Amino acid sequence: MADLLGSILSSMEKPPSLGDQETRRKAREQAARLKKLQEQEKQQKVEFRKRMEKEVSDFIQDSGQIKKKFQPMNKIERSILHDVVEVAGLTSFSFGEDDECRYVMIFKKEFAPSDEELDSYRRGEEWDPQKAEEKRRLKELAQRQEEEAAQQGPVVVSPASDYKDKYSHLIGKGAAKDAAHMLQANKTYGCGEATVGLGGGGRGAQ
Q1: What pLDDT, on the 0 to 100 scale, is given for residue 170?
Q2: Is CATH 3.30.1370.50 what the domain over 24-127 is classified as, yes or no?
Q3: What sign does the CA torsion over 20, 22, 28, 30 have?
Q4: Where is the composition biased (Basic and acidic residues) (predicted)?
Q5: Residue 119 CA to chain centroid, in angstroms?
Q6: Which of 127 and 154 is assigned the larger pLDDT?
Q7: By the 8 A CB rule, do 84 and 94 touch?
Q8: What is the Cα–Cα distance from 148 to 107, expressed in whole angstroms?
Q9: How far apart are CA 135 and CA 153, in angstroms?
């Protein structure tokens, strides 16, 4: 038992084997590569931000442009651009279904897009102000016609069937038929209307 413990202790005290040294060297190299990549990525982000700041600045100074569409970007790039736009006091939106195809559009504050325009971009369509105006006019016209029709009052619709037939299951078929016959008889003989009596006193009055 003592020999086993001694051999374990002596093996622990030995300098690291060649295999251990190789593993440590590889780990150091990997750490150095990772650090270099992180620095490169950081530098790329800084350069990208500078490029976006230049493009946004040019856009602001160009009085002929009211909006600008950028090429599709990854999530990090879109995030940087949105930040640049916000700092510049502009408005920006991302459009596109797939993450790889998503792109950013920026707008000058005084030309911020309407909900209809945004919906058009979300559907992947180009915004056509003339078509939108025509659509709006037609909608207003339809609304005015509806309002005018409502002011004229309800349209009287004559029922297709007699109410007694409709509710015969409630008042009983026999009662419904009797009521229907009575109504028909009244119409035929003019009951319910002012009629001249044909009694014996009729002749004497002439």
Answers
A1: 58
A2: yes
A3: negative
A4: 21-49, 119-147
A5: 8
A6: 127
A7: no
A8: 40
A9: 28
* Contact status, residue 79 vs residue 92, Cβ threshold 8 Å: no
The domains of the chain are located at: 24-127
Q: What is the largest CA-CA distance in the chain?
A: 157
Identity of the amino acid at 193: E
**Burial per residue of 184-197, b for 16 or more beta-carbon CB atoms within 10 angstroms, e otherwise:** eeeeeeeeeeeeee
Give the tens place of pLDDT for each residue, 37-90: 999 999 999 999 999 999 999 999 998 998 999 999 999 999 999 999 999 999
Tokens at residue 25, please? 């060297």
CA distance 168 to 80: 75
Q: Are the beta carbons of 90 and 108 closer than 8 angstroms? A: yes
- Tokens 């309800």 correspond to 154
Comparing CA positions, the residue from 68, 157, 140, 57 lying closest to residue 111 is 68
